[in-house]
């Protein structure tokens, strides 16, 4: 298994220790604990599985869903239907088809079927919901939760209505709950570290940049939503086989708040956080419930019964966490990544990968670039202002074209049009003869068009290696090959040294280079760079020029460079196109353009020229 | 014909109620960019204020409920939402969830988890006849109140200096501050009005159902969210349209749904906006998600 | 009047302004020029409280601005006309103006004054602000900023997107303001005009001041061109 971030074999093992510990501890409790304690622990484990399910979607996508407990409900009811003894089934759920009534499945098969059912439901619901905008997802999933409640509470003949079901066989033992919980942790980690998981995390870090490297945002969200549904369904099924009763409010608003609190307090971005949060909050909950039932403080003050106190306490904890500690107890790290473990020497950041072969060697470029990137007659108006007017631009493979012009000339807008982020009012953009006008950025990335962004930080929480590898994964490469590609690209850009540390910790110059590396990971035929030298020191600029020259030679791609800094443009670009006020002012060699009075005037104004002549 | 007329008025009344909820949520959304989960609990608390003050003359009790709604909204803003004002939208959403849970459970702890009944003036359960249509007085009240609210809100927003500041802040918060508009004041006022609107809805709900329960705020807040979403985020007009549509749909479904499906009315009503969102992700009237910055 | 000492500003984790010192005297017109991305707008935002400097401070008439909220800074007598104007498109011209004015009869009088000085706005008073042309919007933005009676007017690229003739009108206006003794900090990309107009100019590039001086000093200074177009081979 190639280590991508913090994971040396030791730290991966440390992270996987968690599920093993869970299983071991529950085995111990099973052997030695009182029945009531076992029952409590089992419930905690069932909650834990649901929280992990929540984490898989919310933590990796960065989008909050308030409907996941609807899948727990679904799983619970399906499991109940399949295991309810015939006599009770006839009484409580007369509307169920005979085949289901007669099925008396054991714990395992009923849980598996429940998981499949809720997973299927999640895919069905997820497909339309993930098409809505990022802000609408929390609301639509909340609606889903209430729809589920409504259906279940009113479909009396099938679900027993609002009184619910009783006498469900209690088959969940603490050991089996422990096993399922351990499996859930492993599944969640496996997903997080899979190609799909990385792609999803990229959308969390920067949705726009993710699209630009070919990641299908909706697709990745649906996948995570489905897995989340499966896990929540398992949690629900196990829970119902622990308590033996089920009604529509079992997994409704209160449970949503509780599981959300567990996840947020533990730390949304890591599975370890989900585990920590679930256990911590469960403990607090038990404590507060004890107080709820009447307790005496220090033998002197006695607090009477106060139902709802536990929930208030939990709500306050959630509130406090959002205000003071938004990253939760785990800080978003997995067990193997904890800093104190590193200080103890039990885990360490992965060493930077070794450069593969000779850094300067020519790679096998997967795409043979043949035709040009050609924009013709491109015009675009915004709010009454003509931002681009009849722009023609031609970029041949292997050449570097500089795009300069004063502020507001339309350069970034043009790049947005070329890369699919904006559709022109008129005109066409073609790649190698194929009309690609209006294609989405994701599609264009797959066609071989890469770009960087002026202001964006590379995915701050992922390591450099992960950020770049994600680009290759966006092209459909498996994780191992993606890491190989990323190592190669990072080696060319001299970024290998800190490749396994979070990208957000790099100095600004390196972050710029990382943005370029990320775009290179998709093996672009055409690379659009938006002010790559902005904010770089002179030394960094020189390094950038050398790197870009190598990229041109090795990748054979066409390079469009928006730049103000002529010290970058001059040595690199064979041609320069000057935009002013949305129109092309001049196309020529860098020397021609620099000496052109019209160009100087567009930047500095005519009287300046006159003054310097004097 | 009479029946149709009756049904239309019922639909309009329900739609007005939903519009009031949606307006309350939109107000806060336009100045803060946050969808407030706790709005439902503002409604619930105001309703409970009415329950607690039931001994007083009805007018006084309603006034008490109004004050309660405003007070709780301002308190929530000051204690819970101000510290996370600059956090990202997800964080604000979860914070409002926390506030909602806290408020709901405070009432559960202080009163009871079960519903309590509230006595309301008898005149409100009666109906008045207009021609051949008999309209429940409560619906008159709802419609009348909504019109007054719309008028009042319109006056506030378009004819007062404060309203001007609020509209400016809603369009571009930073620029408004650069002109001296006080951020804290504008947000507090938005919350106060939102609380007042919630109180109105709470009172109307009590008069309609005759009871209060700690979970009574959940469906209204969902209704409000959905109405805002289908109307288009951040537009007052959109919120009203969304509310009316949703109310009309719900009411008409209540009448025309076949008996077998009748209990599933809510489920159908809430599935409908998802369909709208698929085809028009920004709502029927479009809207700006996120706010303009200088 | 206004002094910046060692101001460093960053966004997220990238530092954009690397320690800038500048000062503006009473009634002075100071220009800030330089290419895009130099950090000019960032400095203005830091002065007005929209973004907090990582270190350093801005002082206005003895009061430290750093850490104050924008609405408080504006009350001290500063006004910003931001890049892109940012007039409120959903409000009418009159409403836009009223936002800048103080309340009460004081405000009414200054509104009247504004409409006198900008006749085109009186014509369009009842129209929605998004119906105005670029130049008219710029006038509206300036009028609105002036309504508070500021001692220091800060303008971020007032000529952006305007036709040359319109730019002349705007600069005439600014000339009039200078005569009235209003201090101004003017950020522009068009170097020549700015150097010509301002008492002094500061040339900014990649977050640092590269040159500064009066009109005559800068017009002979090759560093200015270098800041924009890089070194000549």
Task: Give structural notes.
The complex is a heterotrimer of chains A (614), B (294) and C (233). With 614 residues, chain A is of the alpha/beta class. Chain A folds into two domains: 9-251, ABC transporter involved in vitamin B12 uptake, BtuC; 375-613, P-loop containing nucleotide triphosphate hydrolases (Rossmann fold, 3-Layer(aba) Sandwich), CATH 3.40.50. Chain A has helices spanning 9-32, 35-61, 68-83, 86-92, 98-102, 107-129, 136-154, 156-159, 174-192, 195-205, 207-212, 217-243, 253-266, 271-292, 309-324, 339-343, 411-418, 441-447, 464-474, 479-492, 508-520, 538-555, 566-572, 590-595, 597-604, 606-613; strands at 295-297, 301-303, 373-382, 385-395, 400-404, 426-431, 434-435, 449-451, 526-530, 558-562, 575-580, 583-588. In chain A, α2 runs parallel beside α9 (174-192), α3 crosses α12 and α19 packs parallel to α21 (508-520). The radius of gyration of chain A is 29 Å and the shape is elongated. Chain B has a single domain (2-117, 133-279), classed as Orthogonal Bundle (ABC transporter involved in vitamin B12 uptake, BtuC), CATH 1.10.3470. In chain B, β2 (127-130) and β3 form a beta hairpin. In chain B, α1 packs across α9, α1 (2-32) runs antiparallel to α10 (236-256) and α2 crosses α8 (183-209). Chain C is α/β, with parallel strands linked by helices and 233 residues long. Chain C has a six-stranded mixed beta sheet, with helices on both faces. Chains in contact: A-B, A-C, B-C. Chains B and C meet through α6 and α7 of B and α2 and α3 of C.
How many domain modules of chain B?
1
Distance between the termini of chain A: 70 Å
Roughly what percent helix of chain A?
55-70%
Percent of residues in β-strands of chain B: under 5%
- Stated plainly, the CATH topology of chain B is called ABC transporter involved in vitamin B12 uptake, BtuC
Largest interface: A-B, 43 and 46 residues
Determine the oligomeric state from the structure: heterotrimer
The H-and-E topology of chain B, N to C, reads as HHHHEEEHHHHEHHH
Which range does the strand content of chain A fall in? 5-15%
Question: How many domain modules of chain A?
Answer: 2
Q: Rough shape of chain B? A: globular
How many E strands of chain B?
A: 4
Calculate Rg of chain A over CA atoms. Answer: 29 Å
Mean pLDDT of chain B: 86
Q: What's the arrangement of strands in the largest beta sheet of chain B?
A: 1-4
What gross morphology of chain A would you assign? elongated
Can you count the helices of chain B? 11
Strand order of the largest sheet of chain A: 8-9-10-5-11-12
Gyration radius of chain B (Cα, Å) is 19 Å
């Amino acid at each position: 298994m190639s280590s991508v971030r913090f994971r040396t074999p030791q730290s991966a093992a440390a992270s996987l220790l968690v599920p093993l510990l869970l299983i071991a501890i529950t085995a111990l409790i099973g052997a030695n604990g009182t029945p009531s304690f076992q029952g409590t622990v089992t419930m905690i484990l069932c909650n834990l599985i649901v929280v992990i399910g929540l984490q898989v979607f919310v933590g990796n996508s960065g989008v909050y869903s308030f409907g996941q407990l609807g899948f727990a409900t679904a799983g619970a009811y399906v499991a109940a239907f399949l295991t309810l003894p015939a006599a009770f089934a006839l009484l409580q759920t007369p509307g169920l088809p005979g085949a289901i009534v007669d099925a008396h499945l054991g714990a395992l098969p009923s849980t598996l079927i429940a998981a499949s059912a809720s997973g299927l439901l999640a895919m069905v619901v997820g497909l339309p919901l993930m098409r809505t905008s990022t802000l609408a997802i929390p609301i639509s999933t909340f609606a889903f939760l209430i729809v589920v409640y409504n259906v279940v509470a009113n479909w009396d003949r099938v679900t027993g209505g609002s009184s619910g079901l009783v006498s469900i066989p209690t088959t969940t033992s603490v050991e089996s709950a422990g096993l399922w919980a351990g499996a859930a942790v492993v599944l969640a980690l496996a997903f997080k570290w899979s190609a799909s998981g990385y792609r999803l995390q990229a959308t969390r870090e920067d949705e726009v940049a993710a699209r630009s490297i070919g990641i299908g945002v909706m697709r990745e969200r649906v996948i995570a939503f489905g897995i989340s549904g499966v896990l929540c369904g398992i949690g629900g099924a196990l829970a119902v086989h622990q308590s033996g009763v089920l009604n529509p409010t079992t997994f409704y608003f209160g449970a949503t708040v509780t599981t959300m609190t567990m996840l947020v307090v533990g730390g949304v971005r890591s599975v370890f956080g989900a585990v920590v949060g679930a256990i911590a909050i469960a403990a607090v909950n038990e404590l507060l419930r004890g107080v709820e039932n009447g307790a005496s403080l220090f033998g002197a003050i006695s607090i009477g019964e106060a139902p709802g106190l536990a929930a208030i306490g939990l709500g306050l904890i959630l509130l406090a966490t959002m205000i003071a500690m938004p990253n939760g107890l785990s800080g978003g790290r997995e067990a193997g990544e904890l800093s104190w473990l590193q200080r103890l020497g039990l885990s360490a950041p992965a060493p930077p990968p070794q450069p593969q072969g000779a850094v300067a060697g020519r790679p096998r470029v997967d795409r043979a670039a043949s035709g040009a990137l050609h924009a013709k007659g491109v015009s675009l108006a915004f709010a009454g202002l003509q931002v681009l007017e009849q722009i023609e631009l031609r970029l041949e493979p292997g050449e570097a074209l500089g795009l300069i012009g004063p502020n507001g000339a339309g350069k970034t807008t043009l790049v947005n049009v070329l890369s699919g982020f904006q559709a022109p009012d008129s005109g066409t953009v073609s790649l190698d003869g194929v009309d690609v006008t209006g294609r989405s950025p994701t599609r264009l990335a797959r066609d071989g068009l890469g770009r960087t962004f002026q202001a964006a930080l590379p995915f701050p929480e992922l390591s450099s290696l992960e950020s770049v590898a994600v680009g290759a994964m966006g092209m459909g490469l498996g994780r191992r090959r993606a890491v190989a590609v990323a190592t190669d690209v990072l080696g060319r850009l001299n970024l290998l040294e800190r490749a396994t540390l979070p990208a957000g910790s790099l100095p600004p110059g390196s972050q710029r280079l990382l943005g370029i590396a990320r775009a290179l990971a998709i093996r672009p035929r055409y690379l659009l760079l938006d002010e790559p030298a902005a904010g770089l020191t002179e030394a960094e600029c020189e390094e950038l020029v050398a790197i870009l020259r190598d990229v041109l030679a090795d990748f054979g791609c066409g390079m469009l460079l928006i730049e103000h800094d002529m010290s970058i443009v001059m040595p690199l670009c064979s041609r320069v196109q000057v935009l002013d006020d949305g129109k092309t002012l001049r196309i020529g060699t860098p020397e021609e353009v620099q000496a052109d009075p019209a160009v100087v005037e567009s930047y500095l104004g005519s009287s300046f020229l006159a003054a310097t002549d004097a | 014909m009479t029946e149709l007329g009756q049904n239309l008025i019922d639909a309009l009344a329900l739609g007005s109620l939903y519009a009031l909820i949606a307006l309350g949520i939109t107000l806060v959304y336009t100045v803060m960019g946050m969808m407030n989960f706790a709005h439902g609990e503002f409604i619930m608390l105001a309703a409970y204020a009415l329950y607690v003050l039931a001994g007083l003359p009805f007018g006084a009790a309603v006034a008490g409920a109004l004050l309660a709604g405003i007070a709780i909204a301002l308190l929530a803003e000051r204690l819970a939402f101000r510290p996370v004002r600059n956090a990202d939208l997800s964080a604000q959403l979860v914070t409002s969830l926390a506030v909602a849970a806290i408020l709901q459970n405070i009432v559960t702890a202080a009163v009871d988890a079960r519903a309590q009944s509230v006595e309301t003036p008898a005149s409100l359960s009666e109906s008045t006849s207009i021609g051949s249509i008999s309209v429940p007085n409560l619906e008159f009240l709802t419609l009348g109140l909504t019109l007054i609210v719309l008028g009042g809100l319109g006056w506030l927003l378009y004819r007062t200096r404060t309203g001007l500041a609020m509209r400016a802040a809603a369009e571009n918060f930073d620029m408004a501050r650069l002109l001296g508009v006080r951020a804290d004041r504008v947000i507090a006022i938005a919350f106060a009005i939102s609380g007042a609107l919630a109180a109105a809805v709470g009172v109307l709900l009590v008069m309609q159902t005759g009871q209060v329960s700690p979970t009574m705020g959940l469906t209204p807040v969902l209704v409000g969210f959905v109405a805002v979403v289908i109307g288009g985020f951040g537009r007052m007009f959109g919120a009203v349209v969304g509310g009316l549509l949703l109310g009309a749909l719900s009411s008409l479904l209540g009448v025309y749904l076949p008996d077998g499906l009748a209990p599933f009315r809510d489920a159908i009503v809430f599935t409908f906006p998802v369909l709208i969102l698929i085809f028009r992700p920004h709502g029927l009237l479009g809207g700006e998600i996120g706010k303009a910055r200088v | 009047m206004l002094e910046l000492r060692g101001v460093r500003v960053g966004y997220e984790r990238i530092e954009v302004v690397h320690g800038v010192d500048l000062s503006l005297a009473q009634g002075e017109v100071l220009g800030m020029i330089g290419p895009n991305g130099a950090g000019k707008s960032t400095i203005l935002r830091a002065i007005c409280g929209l973004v907090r400097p990582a270190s350093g401070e801005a002082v206005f008439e003895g009061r430290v601005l750093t850490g104050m909220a924008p609405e408080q800074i504006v009350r001290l007598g500063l006004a910003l006309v931001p890049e892109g104007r940012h007039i409120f498109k959903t409000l009418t011209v009159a409403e836009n103006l009223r936002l800048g004015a103080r309340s009460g009869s004081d405000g009414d009088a200054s509104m009247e004054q504004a409409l006198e000085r900008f006749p085109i706005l009186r014509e369009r008073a009842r129209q929605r602000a998004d119906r105005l042309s670029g130049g008219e919007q710029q006038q509206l933005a300036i009028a609105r900023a002036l309504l508070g009676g500021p001692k220091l007017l800060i303008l971020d690229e007032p000529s952006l997107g305007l036709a040359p003739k319109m730019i002349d009108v705007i600069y005439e206006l600014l000339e009039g303001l200078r005569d009235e003794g209003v201090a101004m900090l003017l950020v522009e990309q068009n170097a020549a005009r700015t150097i010509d107009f301002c008492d002094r100019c500061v040339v900014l590039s990649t977050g640092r001041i590269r040159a500064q001086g009066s009109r005559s000093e800068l017009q002979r200074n090759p560093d200015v061109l270098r800041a924009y177009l890089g070194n000549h081979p």
